[in-house]
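ENTRY TYPE: paired fold submission
RECORD: A
CONTENT: sequence, then structure tokens
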Amino acid sequence: MMYKRMISQVISSHRYSILLLVPRQTGKSTLLSSLQPDLEINFADEKTFLDFSSDPGRLRGL
């Protein structure tokens, strides 16, 4: 069951980027997929984290 989250409107009104820091198993991925972002970078994924850590300038080109 998908609950309507009060923060959905706040997040979707941002035009650039947000940093979502909340505990595990609280529905972050479900929330993000419901908002259908243009780009999603998950630094919890080890390969993604290591790739961007070795070349942080890649973020500027996104």
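RECORD: B
CONTENT: sequence, then structure tokens
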Amino acid sequence: MLQQAEVWAKELVERPDESVAARVDHMFVKALNRPPSKEEQERFGRFVGQIAKVHQLPAAEQMSSRTVWQAVAQALFNVQEFVYTP
């Protein structure tokens, strides 16, 4: 999954998304075939900020950071809905 997250992060930073929220929406639809709930949107938005802070990235660089979006992809790959197979 680490490699997949890296590949997806590369694709994500090339997208013309205008905001973190727009990118998170795209990720949920692509991975889970549904938009994020308000709570998920807020949680993932905070996570983006936290990862950027850990890597000492200014807010202006969040959207273009592969490191940030790889971490977000890994987090999304680990939500129960993605992992669970009935």
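NOTES ON RECORD B: The mean pLDDT is 93. Residues 34 and 49 are 23 Å apart (CA to CA).
STATUS: closed
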